[in-house]
Design a protein that fits this description.
This protein is mainly alpha-helical and 369 residues long. It contains 12 helices and 2 strands; from the N terminus they run ααααββαααααααα.
């Protein structure tokens, strides 16, 4: 538990201090945000605001994670150090962040709203996602647990939804496809939400807070503990290390949010939104809460659905629209809501979704007693 506090505090300080330094660097180099002409007119004032702030978030989390383990090793040289689960989650987060960084850099250097070509972005994200999925199915611990399993899960693995039922090779292929669907959905959800000052960062803090609490709970109720009945234990590898990463992400995002809240001094860009989406997907997969993600990340799901509905209805109706503009947050802006009002109210929705997800998680445990 001490390591969790250290990691969270370290990430918060790094992001809080590192973000203004990064802003100065970006301003000096002229790396500012390009604003779409077809977006809300109120956003035109944001043109030139430094972007790629996700670099600070990812960097703070990585340094805090390894720094915490180093401090623990210095205090106790029997400390086992970083875990495989933590490593593969960091790989997914940093890998997606790198794809986003390339996208952001091309937007800035070419002064256009489009960076990487669609297929290039899909291929790069696919490479990161496949590598994560393969690594997550390997490296079993003493109890035979790998970071991920081939079972589809809600609050824990569902025995009758075993992707490996048709064989290990087929199961591996199906898991890679399933894992990449989750990663694609999460990264797109966060990316679409990142359109207003502080919206994606604040909502992400709530989701990662939930994963931190669930990691602590899963550690205390881990299978193999003499204190825990077999029916209600959790077959999750390295839950406390996952909680450390979730706490570090919360700290880094709170530090970043100090500078990202309205009026934002910096945007996280695709560097941040893709990294955060990858991390959220990684937590869902590694903590065996894949389908629960739909509830926990309900705001991101709602915003992604608004885009799907808008595009589908536009094509089917011959040019008509359901919303004034998609994603959903811009619809309310065009209805006259102030940006801060939209952000705070959407934070409330995000909080209610996280509360509902935690309620389902706990209720399942109570029912299993």
């Amino acid at each position: 538990m001490i390591s969790l506090l250290i990691g969270s505090a370290m990430a918060l300080v790094l992001a809080l201090v590192g973000t203004p330094l990064f802003i100065r660097l970006l301003v000096k180099r002229g790396y500012g945000q390009f604003i779409r002409d077809d977006g809300p007119t109120s956003h035109h004032t944001k043109r030139g605001t430094p972007t790629m702030g996700g670099t600070v978030i990812v960097g703070s989390v990585v340094i805090a994670y390894f720094g915490t383990h180093l401090l623990e090793w210095m205090m106790n040289q029997d400390h086992p150090g970083p875990t495989v689960s933590g490593g593969v989650l960091l790989l997914l987060m940093a890998g997606m962040g790198l794809v986003g960084f390339l996208d952001d850099f091309l937007k800035i250097s070419k002064q256009r709203s489009l960076g990487l070509r669609a297929w290039s972005k899909i291929v790069l994200q696919g490479i990161v996602g496949v590598l994560f999925a393969i690594l997550a199915l390997n490296f079993p611990d003493e109890a035979g647990r790998t970071p991920a399993s081939m079972n589809i899960s809600v609050v824990r693995d569902i025995p009758w939804l075993d992707l490996a039922a048709g064989g290990t090779v087929l199961g591996t292929i199906l898991f890679i496809i399933w894992s990449n669907l989750i990663v694609t959905g999460a990264t797109n959800g966060v990316n679409l939400t990142d359109g207003l000052d502080g919206l994606a960062a604040g909502a992400s803090v709530m989701v990662f807070s939930a994963y931190m609490l669930m990691g602590i709970w899963q550690f205390n109720q881990a299978c193999g503990s003499v204190k825990v009945p077999g029916e209600v234990c959790y077959e999750v590898r390295d839950p406390m290390d996952l909680a450390l990463l979730a706490g570090s992400l919360c700290g880094a995002l709170i530090g970043f949010l100090w500078w990202n809240t309205s009026p934002a001094k910096i945007f996280m860009g695709d560097t941040g939104s893709l990294a955060l989406g990858g991390a959220i997907a990684g937590f869902a997969i590694l903590s065996r809460t894949q389908l629960l993600l739909v509830v926990l990340a309900g705001l991101f799901v709602l915003i992604a659905l608004s885009v799907i509905i808008q595009v589908a209805f536009f094509k089917l109706s011959g040019g008509k629209r359901v919303f004034k503009m998609a994603p959903l947050q811009h619809h309310f802006e065009l209805k006259g809501w102030a940006e801060v009002t939209v952000v705070v109210r959407f934070w409330v929705i995000a909080g209610l979704c996280v509360a509902a997800g935690l309620g389902i998680f706990y209720a399942e445990w109570v029912v299993g007693l």
